[in-house]
Please model this.
Amino acid sequence: MTEFYQKKSLGQHFLKDKNIVKKIVRVAEVDENESVWEIGPGKGILTEELLETNCNLTCFEIDEELYPILEDRFGNKIKLIKQDVLKANWKNLVSNEKIKIVANLPYQITSPILFKIIEFSDSFSKITIMIQKEVAERIKSSPNTKQYGALSLKMQFHFDIKYEFTVRPQNFSPPPKVDSAVISLIPRKDKPNLENKSSFWQIVNVAFQNRRKMLRRNFRNLLNPEKIVLLQEKSGINLSKRAENLTENDFIQIYKSYLDLK
Ligand code: SAM
Model:
């Protein structure tokens, strides 16, 4: 067999501890015959454990040098999608049946994958992913903390999020420079129903544009000074605060008043 050289550019830090792999699959709560997507199977350490559940497994792998390894190991026990997961046609791949995602994600594309998962959040029942610990903490963070930002709000808007456990660098080959964490995401049943989602996210993005600035300053990109005064009156939110001080509910109040003023 030809030698396989790992590519850091593709985030190839392979898990080497079977116990951690088993723990990930346990957290994922995969049922028999359930559809599961694995993003980046690598050489297949997690794939093998997932197949133990007798699930219906689809794997997305970008590195063509891994295809013969995966085909030799698993044959037609998996559906291998030989493509960049970000370029795959998710619309055609999802169905009415809910899917689970279980993956040790390539860290360099964590954000675009998360945005894709958000876009298709209704298609999934649970997502169990390993990401950088620092990103996991940002996603899970609460208002009035340094880590809290637009990403936290976006993820918490769509999902109930659980920080499952930390994984140290020595559990990977080669070891990454930072700690990792497994988190699980379950689509929220009580997701706020907003008529004009793009306005809501525009407000959130503008509010966090310069997180050191007061909201009234950042909102100058959206409204004239008179309307900013009215926005404060109508919403009841003190716009001398900074975005990092606001809860989801506060942003919804601002959004509702903003629609009235626009
Ligand atoms: N699941 C294996 C494990 O836990 O040992 C490998 C995980 S490794 C962190 C990430 C995997 O994602 C690699 O196999 C890499 O080739 C693959 N990958 C990187 N970018 C990708 C992309 N855009 N689409 C699909 N797979 C990708």
Notes: The two ends are 65 Å apart (CA to CA). The chain has two domains: 8-187, 197-261. The first strand starts at residue 14 and ends at 15. Residues 197-261 form a domain with the Helicase, Ruva Protein; domain 3 fold (CATH 1.10.8.100).
